[in-house]
Write a structure and sequence with these properties.
mainly alpha
Length: 252
């Protein structure tokens, strides 16, 4: 995508940069993940992403300026002088790279395998529970095997050793899903949920019990219903429980 335009009349160069993860194309997303995987320093990540997104090149130093070039809509390349002091303000425009955000995005395919729905629409509740348990395991162990397991669920059937950028993409995708779900169902998803493996087992069992009403014969059916439907019901139950507890406190 050509992101630069040049106005000869005003002698002005404009760069149009994405403002969030959701504005990246699939190819751009993969490129950005590669840039982030190569360095842990945010400013280096942003600079690498800026260069790749715009095609901007530093040609040579000319006094206190850099002579640069960038492809534009109007012509093949446009040369211009860049004041180094302006670079930090340019990089601030892609500061959103530093955080996953709450809009789930992921490469459509990894290693030839198609991803499930980015927002988990149409995904079985049982699969969601497995993914969440994997994610909690990743947070605790930092294990590549745990990341690979999560990837095999999100990209059904994917196998093999993953590159760092692919691991980053999988982890970030699930973090975005959790942020989106927390906003969608605030009664059910509350700060501090999760923790140790033992706690996660309890959380999972409580979720299933809430949906089945304690009827174990319904467990298999519950695990196959749509994740969004299950979480909508759990959020409603959590809201009812909160309202009941508030009424009980007022009576005391």
């Amino acid at each position: 995508m050509i992101r630069a335009t040049f106005s000869a009349k005003d002698n002005k160069l404009n760069l149009t940069l994405p403002t969030c993860w959701g504005e990246l194309s699939d190819d751009e997303l993969c490129m950005v993940l590669r840039c982030k995987a190569r360095s842990e320093e945010p400013w280096r990540q942003r600079l690498a992403v800026l260069l790749h997104l715009t095609g901007l090149k530093f040609i040579r130093r000319a006094g206190r300026h850099w002579v640069c070039s960038v492809p534009t809509h109007e012509q093949k390349t446009q040369r211009f002088n860049l004041d180094p002091e302006l670079l930090p303000s340019i990089l601030e425009n892609i500061q959103w790279l530093d955080e996953p955000g709450g809009h789930p995005v992921r490469p459509d395919r990894l290693r030839g395998v198609t991803a499930m729905s980015a927002t988990l629409h149409g995904v079985a509740f049982g699969t969601y529970l497995q993914c969440e348990n994997c994610y909690q395991g990743i947070l605790q162990s930092r294990s590549e095997d745990a990341v690979a397991h999560l990837a095999s669920l999100l990209y059904p059937g994917m196998k093999g050793r993953m590159e760092m950028w692919e691991q980053l993409g999988v982890i970030q995708w699930w973090a975005q899903v959790k942020t989106m779900f927390s906003a969608q169902w605030p009664n059910f998803f509350k700060p501090g949920d999760g923790g140790s493996a033992a706690v996660m087992v309890d959380v999972m069992n409580n979720q299933i019990r809430a949906l089945t009403g304690g009827d174990v014969t319904k467990e298999e059916e519950i695990l196959h219903i749509d994740t969004w439907r299950a979480l909508t019901e759990l959020d409603a139950k959590a809201k009812e429980a909160d309202e009941f507890n508030q009424k009980m406190k007022m009576k005391k």
